[in-house]
Amino acid sequence: MTAQFTNLKKITNNINKLINLSEIFNIELKYEINKIYNSAKTNAYYIKFYFDEDNYSVFLYYNDYETNNYLYAICKDVNSTYGNYIGTFLFNIQMLLVYLSNTQKINLDNYTDNPDRAAMGIYSLLDVDKRGETREEFYGKNLEEQLLISEGKMYLNINTDTILLVFNKFTEIVNKLDVDKCNIIWNNDYYEKMKKLINYFKLYY
Fold this sequence. Notes:
- The protein has a seven-stranded mixed beta sheet.
- The chain is of the alpha+beta class and 205 residues long.
- It has a single domain, classed as Aminopeptidase (3-Layer(aba) Sandwich), CATH 3.40.630.
- It has helices spanning 3-22, 86-100, 115-120, 143-149, 162-176, 190-204, and strands at 30-35, 43-52, 55-63, 71-79, 103-109, 127-128, 153-157.
- Helix 1 crosses helix 2 and helix 2 (86-100) packs antiparallel against helix 5.
- It contains six helices and seven strands.
- The protein is globular.
């Protein structure tokens, strides 16, 4: 494992530890890191944050032969049966990892049942990938039509604003929660716990 991926593993562990330390959830968050063997990539690892087999996010982190010094990410899967923005939270802790690990770019294929809704919700930090197509093809098209043209492809080039956007997403999540409907997984004091969690990240990173 290169120093780059050793650092990725360390940050993953720290994110997981700080989330559990904040006690924002009534269940423990866990993670897995699995190396892909015989991959065409120079180094490639699946990183999964999860509560159980039905509530998880999985990203592929890799660097390739041509740009070995740069780290990239692909969102492979996000699933939640708990509702209450758990899927959105699991996606955005991967986005936090993307930023903290100095990953350059994230790509995903938006194959959800409602791609435009997902693009405005859980994937709202990303843009429709218009590269490889002429700009005229997207002109005057709404979000649903743009996603059809791009075949669901979305991306984000990571920059210094990304971390603030992720923190804003965390705050947005707890502002939308209904305390009477979400206490199976979220701590009743989720708003204060989220502020504590964000402060943890600011302190350590």
